[in-house]
# Entry
Amino acid sequence: MALEDSDCCSRNMCGNLRPLDIKIIDCNQTEVMKLSRPLACQGCCFPCCLQTMDVECPPGTVVGRIEERWSILTPKFDIKNEAGETVLKIKGPICQCNCCGDVEFEILSADGKAKVGKISKHWAGLVSEMFTDAENFGINFPLDLDVKVKATLLGALFLIDFLYFEQK
# Structure
C-alpha cells in the first residue's frame, strides 16, 4: 500500500506539483520504502528548478534518485543510483493524452540507446478515465536489474503519475 504524506495547504495550492512523501507499506504494516519529492516547478519555462524524487529503501537509506531533465517536447528523466551516477534514462511521449490507448514511457540504458523496459499508463475505459481519478500502471524491466534500481523505477512511476496523470 502507498500512503501520501502532504499537508492540506500544499494539496490545494500546489496541486500535482506539491511537495510530498510517499510511504510504501507491506502487508505487515511495516514501512519498507519512502519516496520524497520537494516543491519544484514544471515545464519548459523553468529549467532551473526541475522535478526530483529521492528513494529510500529501507526508510533512511537513499538508494536512488529520479531527476527530470530539461526538454521542450518530451518528458525526460535520469534514474540515478545512490552514488549519483545515471544508470538508466526515461523518455516519455510528446503527447501524454491517453484517448483509447496506453501511454508508454520508455526505460532506456544509461547511454540512451537501448530500450530496456517501459512504464505504461493503461487505458481503463471511457467511463473510468472521465469520471474517476484512478489510474492503472504497469512497469517492465529486466529481471536481473539491481533491486535498488528497481525501487528507484517504482519511484519514477509515482513521479510520472503525479506530473502527467493526476488531475490538476
